[in-house]
């Protein structure tokens, strides 16, 4: 169970793994068979094993050739000058009395934050995957990386964010994405233990973004690309007036927009919270600010449609909260169809996909 907001809203989530996979940057880099096995639901019972398998396979391929080298800054006491001299350290420690000099220099090595990050992901996967064979592969691959000189430390994400993948090492992006996803999936959601829950499971803002990206990723990879286009554009109000006045208009930033070649447009607004509330009379109503938001999206786009065959629909898709009944209602605000739907994240991956797919029905 995950508590969102200020503790007033509780959203049952059986596992964050499915959301993490659809929201990750790994899917575009997977081979067709690997991607299809994840998207079709064939690996729903062992999602972590599926990603760890990709990671282990990629690392084994690099170990057969060579790990990516990079220059890393290093400081050491030398018997000859290398790089630049650290005069303060040399004088303070009286190194010249012993025939040594403190130097700073760059060294070409495999012990980079990138390889350390990948190695730490392998060590984690070796402890948590279900398959004993896969656990052995991950452990052996991590051991081989350490034998080649990769140190046993897990770099901070800030170090990895500063690491830039160039043209010559672009193939590393796939293994970096797999390692990041394996570590993100280290959520102890199934059994109690001593390990603390990662910040992801306690940070409502990150969960909201994860929910938005997962739904966008689902449609991006599940819809037929010859019939649908998936995007998240910033919409135009279509307003006319003084530039100073137009600058005061808020931006219309969408979560997911589906465009069909036949002219059908579906604007999906996602909310990782309850979209219903009880008014002062004890009646359950859709939150007005959410409905106004969807209405604004739909009406601004309706003006730009070229013919009667081009339709614009709005969907308010929100996470089902604890104790709430499922919601799936629709109405027409002439001539536009608007739907309000809940998603039960406590269901199985196949059930969650089926609920997302209802946006097209």
Layout of helices and strands:
Elements: E1 2-4, E2 9-11, H1 17-23, H2 32-39, H3 47-65, E3 70-78, E4 84-85, H4 87-92, E5 101-109, H5 113-128, H6 132-147, H7 157-162, H8 172-184, H9 204-222, E6 228-231, E7 234-235, H10 243-246, E8 252-253, E9 256-260, E10 264-271, E11 276-278, E12 284-286, H11 288-302, E13 311-319, E14 328-333, E15 336-343, H12 349-357
Parallel strand pairs: 10-13, 13-15
Antiparallel strand pairs: 1-2, 3-5, 4-5, 6-9, 7-8, 9-10, 11-12, 14-15
Pfam families: McrBC
Protein name: 5-methylcytosine-specific restriction system specificity protein McrC
InterPro entries: McrC (IPR019292), McrC_bac (IPR014407)
Q: Can you describe this structure?
A:
With 361 residues, this protein is α+β, with helices and mostly antiparallel strands. It is 38% helix and 21% strand. It has 12 helices and 15 strands. The strands form 5 sheets. A 6-stranded mixed β-sheet has the order 6-9-10-13-15-14, sandwiched between helices. A 3-stranded antiparallel β-sheet has the order 3-5-4. Helix 1 (17-23) packs across helix 9 (204-222). The longest helix has 19 residues, at 47-65. The relative contact order is 0.12. It comes from Nocardia jinanensis. This is 5-methylcytosine-specific restriction system specificity protein McrC.
